[in-house]
């Protein structure tokens, strides 16, 4: 069986989450909108899940809107904010390393007249707070979007420093927390974001379900209108089983954070990196870490390995039974200046050699040790 080290893309469904979902895929298939008792039981399950997800981030259940995933959540927030501030005399500021679910809708807003600025990051991938502060124009209406953590590098952004800057300007703040939630503390009762995007499949929940936190009292314009689901905030049939799974995954994530389970994963990540560093010790730049090694998720390792193009290495590792991710030349051409490693100031060679290995709560020590052996052997073979 392949060793799965691409959990930044998606995580394996936790067995406990699948168990929670099963009744709503078979016996309790009813619509929560019905007036009969079976519907009421399903409706109660949806609201229980809403409470469980809200509890993970310190929100009130009524502040949570279920979506089809993190991309819809971010698009919904950004388009609602764009409508609220208007394109006349307003401004949008995002970090230079945002996920495409943020950078692309914001680029589309720029194409129709909004002024957009990408705030610079340092070589560690962390937002330069001075540059961000200068970009936020207190004399104009606007909003900002800064991710909680990068799915590519795992780098954590200083949201607790960003939020006061945005609030003092009278602006709105959205944060894409898809990569971070469930792995580190993400609390809207501690950091004053107005909107926050979440996705279940990033922490052992099902694919195809996410959530948008909307702080009480913040103006909101629905993106999808229909028959009044989600309190009129998002039309469309309720994905009951997935939402129940989201709630179960949030409960498991909260327990993992409370039990400090990710300390074990962080130790495994460090063990993996040290194994590669010692196994591939050909020159000082044989292995380069991309992004802050201090301010990052416990699950992500983004490395540039000298002498190996990422697309070649990923294909060879797939044959060797290690599943990971990276960018080939074609992907980089599509990304243009928006690629996070390019925003960090790295040259093309380093970017094209960059490979992302990402762990989850289900990763084992045995898998990591075997992965090190396979990666070292594969790299040495490709180097000839």
Summarize this structure as a short list of keywords or feature phrases.
single chain; 384 residues; alpha/beta; Aspartate Aminotransferase, domain 1; Aspartate Aminotransferase, domain 2; 2 domains; seven-stranded mixed beta sheet; four-stranded antiparallel beta sheet; 13 helices
Q: How are the SSEs placed, and which strands pair?
A:
Elements: E1 3-4, H1 15-21, H2 37-57, E2 64-67, H3 70-85, E3 91-95, H4 100-111, E4 115-119, H5 129-135, E5 142-145, H6 159-168, E6 172-176, E7 195-199, E8 210-214, H7 240-258, H8 262-279, E9 287-289, E10 300-305, H9 310-320, E11 322-323, E12 325-326, H10 329-335, H11 340-343, H12 348-352, E13 354-358, H13 365-383
Parallel strand pairs: 1-11, 3-4, 3-5, 5-6, 6-7
Antiparallel strand pairs: 2-8, 7-8, 9-10, 10-13, 12-13
Helix pairs in contact: 1-7, 2-7, 3-4, 8-13, 9-13
Model description:
The structure is a single chain. With 384 residues, the protein is α/β, with parallel strands linked by helices. The chain has 2 domains: 134 residues, Aspartate Aminotransferase, domain 1 (Alpha-Beta Complex), CATH 3.90.1150; 243 residues, Type I PLP-dependent aspartate aminotransferase-like (Major domain) (Aspartate Aminotransferase, domain 2), CATH 3.40.640. The chain contains 13 helices and 13 strands. The protein has a 7-stranded mixed beta sheet, with helices on both faces. β5, α6 and β6 form a beta-alpha-beta unit. α8 runs parallel beside α13. The longest helix has 21 residues. The two termini are 27 Å apart. 48% of the residues are buried.
